[in-house]
C-alpha cells in the first residue's frame, strides 16, 4: 500500500465494450473515485447519453445541462462545463444529457467527426497542464455501441480498458471491439493501446466465473488485472443513492476490490514504457 503514484503525464483511459451491462460505468466511476480518494486528480467524461456516470457521481445532467454534447458538437471548452463531484474531492465530471443521443447522427456530416473529442481534450489538457491541479487521470465512459461516440473516445485516448463480465457470452463481440481498436490505432491514433482488462461481476462460487476468468487470462495475459471485481449487491445499490460504492460503503468487498484495481492501474504507470 502507500500512496498511489502520480503518472508523469495525464493518462487518458477509455472504458469501452459495446455490450451493455458489463460494468463499464461502474468501473469508470469507482476506479475514478478510488484514485481521487487517494489524492489523485481525476476527470470522468460521461460519453453515454444515458448519463449513468453523471448520476452515480451525483452531478446534474438534465436535458438542459450543457456537457459533453456541447463540447463535441458546438466546440465548447471542457473546463467550462465540467463540474466537481459533490461527494468526492479531486474528482470532476463532464456530464452527459440525453441530448447526446443526437450527436451520433449530428456528427456524421461534420469535418473531422472522429477526432472532435480528441481536439477538445488535447487542447484542454494543454491548458490544464500548467494549472496547480493538473489532472492525473481522465476516464471516458463509453456508450454500449461502436458508433461515432466510441470512436471519438478511442481517438482521444492513449489507453483502452475493457471490463469483461464473468458470464455466458462474455467473449462474444470482443473480436469486433478489438478490430475497432486496431482500426482507430491504424487510422486515427497510433498511440492507442489496449492496456487493461478488468473482470467484473465475478462470482467465486461458480465454475462459470472461474472458466471465463481462465479463458480471458489465457487470451490476454498480462493485460488482465489480478483483481477481479466480485458480484456485489452494494455495488449495484450505490447508483440509486447517487453514490459510488467507494462513498456508499467504503469497507465493503466491492469497494475494496475497486480500490485494489485502481491501485494496479496506478502502479502500471510506473512500469509503462516511455513513448
Ligand atoms: P455498462 O456501463 O457496461 O452498461 P454498468 O456499469 O451500468 O454497465 O453495470 C450494469 C448493471 O450491473 C448496473 O445495474 C450495475 O449497478 C450492475 N453492476 C455492475 N457491476 C456490478 C457488480 N460487480 N456486482 C453487482 N452488480 C453490478
Ligand atoms: Mg454504462
UniProtKB/TrEMBL annotation:
CDD domains: ParAB_family (cd02042). Gene3D superfamilies: P-loop containing nucleotide triphosphate hydrolases. Pfam families: AAA_31. Residues 11-193 form the AAA domain. InterPro entries: AAA_dom, DNA_Partitioning_ATPase, P-loop_NTPase. May play a role in septum formation. Belongs to the ParA family. This is Chromosome partitioning protein. The lineage of its organism: Bacteria, Bacillati, Actinomycetota, Actinomycetes, Propionibacteriales.
Amino acid at each position: 500500500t502507500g500512496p498511489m503514484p502520480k503518472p508523469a503525464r495525464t493518462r487518458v483511459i477509455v472504458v469501452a465494450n459495446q455490450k451493455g451491462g458489463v460494468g463499464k460505468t461502474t468501473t469508470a466511476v469507482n476506479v475514478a473515485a478510488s484514485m481521487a480518494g487517494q489524492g489523485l486528480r481525476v476527470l470522468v467524461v460521461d460519453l453515454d447519453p444515458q448519463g449513468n456516470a453523471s448520476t452515480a457521481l451525483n452531478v446534474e445532467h438534465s436535458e438542459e445541462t450543457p456537457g459533453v454534447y456541447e463540447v463535441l458538437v458546438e466546440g465548447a471548452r471542457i473546463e467550462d462545463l465540467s463540474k466537481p463531484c459533490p461527494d468526492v474531492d479531486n474528482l470532476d465530471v463532464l456530464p452527459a444529457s440525453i441530448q447526446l443521443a443526437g450527436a451520433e447522427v449530428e456528427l456524421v456530416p461534420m469535418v473531422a467527426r472522429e477526432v472532435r473529442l480528441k481536439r477538445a481534450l488535447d487542447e484542454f489538457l494543454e491548458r490544464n497542464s500548467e494549472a496547480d491541479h493538473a489532472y492525473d487521470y481522465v476516464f471516458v465512459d463509453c456508450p454500449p455501441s461502436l458508433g461515432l461516440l466510441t470512436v471519438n473516445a478511442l481517438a482521444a485516448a492513449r489507453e483502452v480498458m475493457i471490463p469483461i463480465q464473468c458470464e455466458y457470452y462474455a467473449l462474444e463481440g470482443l473480436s469486433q471491439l478489438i478490430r475497432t481498436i486496431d482500426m482507430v490505432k491504424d487510422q486515427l491514433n497510433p498511440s492507442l493501446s489496449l492496456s487493461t482488462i478488468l473482470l467484473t461481476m465475478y462470482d467465486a462460487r461458480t465454475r462459470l466465473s472461474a472458466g471465463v476468468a481462465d479463458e480471458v487470462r489465457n487470451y490476454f495475459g498480462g493485460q488482465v488485472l489480478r483483481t477481479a471485481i466480485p458480484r456485489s449487491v452494494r455495488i449495484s445499490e450505490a447508483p440509486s443513492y447517487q453514490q459510488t460504492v467507494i462513498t456508499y460503503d467504503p469497507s465493503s468487498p466491492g469497494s475494496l476490490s475497486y480500490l485494489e484495481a485502481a491501485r494496479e492501474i496506478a502502479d502500471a504507470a510506473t512500469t509503462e514504457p516511455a513513448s
